[in-house]
Amino acid sequence: MVKRILTVLLLFPTLVCAQINTDRVMTIARNALYFEDYVLSIQYFNQVINAKPYLYEPYFFRALAKLNLEDFQGAETDCDAAIQRNPFVVGAYQIRGLARIRQNKFDGAIEDYKKALHYDPENITLWHNLTLSHIQKKDYDAAKEDLESLLKVSPRYTRAYLMRGEVSLQQKDTIAALNDFNKALELDKYDPDAWSARAIVKLQQAKYAEAEADFNRAIPLSAKNAGNYINRALARFHQNNLRGAMSDYDLALDIDPNNFIGHYNRGLLRARVGDDNRAIEDFDFVIKMEPDNMMAVFNRGLLRAQTGDYRGAIQDYTTVINQYPNFLAGYYQRSEARRKIGDKKGAEQDEFKVMKAQIDKQNGVTNKDVAQNKGKEDEGEGGEKTRKKSDKNMNNYRKIVIADDSEAEQRYTSDYRGRVQDKNVNIKLEPMFALTYYEKMSDVKRSVNFHKYIEDLNRADVLPKRLRITNMEAPLTEEQVKVHFALIDTHTSAIVEDEKNASKRFARAIDFYLVQDFSSAVSDLTQTILLDGDFFPAYFMRALIRCKQLEYQKAEQAVETDVVSGDNKRKEITAVDYEVVRKDLDKVIDLAPDFVYAYYNRANVSAMLKDYRAAIVDYDKAIELNPDFADAYFNRGLTHIFLGNNKLGISDLSKAGELGIVSAYNVIKRFIDQSE
Question: Could you give the CA distance from residue 453 to residue 537 in angstroms, rounded to a whole number?
Fold first, then answer.
């Protein structure tokens, strides 16, 4: 019995007292955080806090995890605890500032960023967020002072020029705004926000052709931005290009199906070109979103009458008249519809109402409600063709809707920066493939990843779940975390009973991998290989995990020197460290020369080390084995571009886009000018 207990402890070292393993658990927790497994990371940080509540680090990193899970209050509380334990950690003020911003506590956020800048005055992220906090408070003078300081620190930071341009617009200084937007484009002509910012100013200046040209540059660089299509549609509408405008609304609604302005304006344009039934569908959607939107109800009534649904039209007109009893166009249209269904009496009552209002107008008799609703009957000659979304004047029912100023001001208010929150604007290789149980759902369905040996392994029922080959790994839910911790215990007991079973070792290795305990996973995979040297999935996963460990270690060095403001004393990661990864992948290819994912992963390792020619050789082989391997085309395309072969690169990226990697088109646009 004693021997069995000792064996379990040796096989499962994480069962030892948490006090002893605090550093190890902390490493696993930060591992999980880095690879975006936030729920799991919090559970590990909880263990460290319970064991050593006086440390600031677990509170700080748990705050990061909570911030990503949108638990802003919890993140703020954890940052409070971290700062209480160590008031000199720049990252804690930075994260607490973000958490406070998300709770609209802008004064507290400003205080945090100023405190952090006291310790780290050249931190671009801190200046960026401080500026946006002042913009939120409409303290534009303070925002401009922040931006002056930011541009002294980083003169080529394009986002600073865009923010300063936005501040100038709020101060009604269009010339200064345009100068800043032009400067941003001079620094980075591939920044979609710079093109769209300048385009919006051109829209406001009624320079519609120039605005459309700028949107034409912004859209390929940010294909998932529905707002750019909505705004280009407006530019096209003002140039009487109704078909082009409708096409843009179609594209915008593909990206954002619930976009109010897209549906309302497309409904108006469809009505103008006689596409009445589909226009009704758009207004149905708007009314479902906003049942009290009387302009949409009235427009639907007009369309129903146009398509012969007079009773439906009368119902809509009546709804509007009940809300606006002095809206004469409503009575006039309802009288027409009532006559069509034979309701002569009702029609005459409506006509009398219209006639009385006209007589009163001629005699100078005014009605308070009529006066409040007074406006242009239609845009008419020289009249405005658009209205603000908040405009409730029923006489403007035919006008195209544009966003309110308050909505337009939100351009940069959500662009706060944080280490975990930052948008990755760098062009990145598609990730390496793994063997795992969980896969993220893709917006665009790609081919199923398959290999006969892995399929046979699944059919053998040696693993608790079906093994998938994917490079879109999904983080675990709280329930899944519990399941895999329980499975580790189960596998440990099974290994004690049968120590020579390679499959059981491999199964536990996968569970350790899923709970981000990389060291234990590598240990089990090594034991698997010692028991069965021909079991290539163990080599494949060991290579992947070791590569992730190296990636994590490099990131940790940056975190320690940047976020936590600590001294970096770790050994620098070099190409030599990746040799063990390559050797494992070489062994996989030796054992399973048709396992395409080994060539792909080895190519990625070569690309990471800037050995681009070796990477291309492996991507070539992967594509030879699988001519529809989208990720390999994408990465080979980038690798060609890194070597300066833009035409070859664009050709591969085009194929990758065709096979389902939509972001390839964005990359193509960035480099197509250079290839011509």
Answer: 9
Of 7-11, 84-88, 154-158, the poorest mean pLDDT is in: 7-11
Write down the residue that tokens 């004693």 correspond to.
2
User: In whole angstroms, what is the distance from residue 337 CA to residue 325 CA?
Assistant: 18
* Nearest Cα residue to 440 out of 121, 45, 35: 35
The predicted-structure confidence for 149-166, as pLDDT tens digits, reads as follows 999 999 999 999 999 999
Query: Which amino acid, residue 26?
Result: M
Give the pLDDT band of residue 182 (cuts 50, 70, 90).
very high
Phi and psi torsions of 568, nearest 5°: -90, 110
Rg (the chain; Cα; Å): 31
Q: pLDDT digit string (tens) for 465-515? A: 999 999 999 999 889 999 999 999 999 999 999 999 999 999 999 999 999
pLDDT at 11: 42
> In this structure, which long-range contacts are made by residues 517-524, counting pairs with CB atoms below 8 Å and at least 24 apart in sequence?
517/14, 517/28, 518/28, 518/31, 518/545, 518/548, 518/549, 518/552, 519/24, 519/27, 520/13, 520/14, 521/545, 522/546, 522/549
pLDDT tens, position by position, 526-569? 999 999 999 999 999 999 999 999 998 887 766 554 444 444 45
Measure the CA–CA gap between 540 and 434, rounded to whole angstroms: 8
Q: How far apart are CA 353 and CA 331, in angstroms?
A: 7
What is the distance between the alpha carbons of residues 334 and 336, in angstroms, rounded to a whole number? 5
143 close to 163: Cβ distance less than 8 angstroms: yes
Q: Given the structure tokens 């709770």, which residue do they identify?
A: 103
Scanning the structure block, which residue is given the tokens 């930052």?
422
CA distance 372 to 356: 18
How far is C-alpha 607 from the chain's CA centre? 26
C-alpha pair distances (Å), 418 with each of 71, 318, 319, 563: 15, 52, 49, 10
How many helices (DSSP H) and strands (DSSP E) are in the chain?
A: 34, 4
| String of DSSP letters for 359-372 | HHHHTT---HHHHH
* CA 283 – CA 320 distance, rounded (Å): 14
Q: How far apart are CA 462 and CA 485, in angstroms?
A: 18
Q: Which three-class secondary structure state does DSSP give residue 99?
A: helix
Q: State mean pLDDT over 376-396.
A: 69
3-state secondary structure 575-639: HHHHHHHHHHHHHHHHHCCCCHHHHHHHHHHHHHCCCHHHHHHHHHHHHHHCCCCHHHHHHHHHH
3-class DSSP assignment, residue 64: helix
55 by Cβ neighbours in 10 Å (0-12 / 13-18 / 19+) ranks as middle
Cα-based distances in Å from 674 to 2, 32, 645, 646, 650: 71, 39, 10, 7, 11
**Of 494, 438, 502, nearest in space to 466 by CA:** 438
- In sequence order, the β-bridge partners of residue 36 are none
Rounded distance, CA 230 to CA 403, Å? 10
3-state secondary structure 445-475: CCCCCCCHHHHHHHHCCCCCCCCEEECCECC
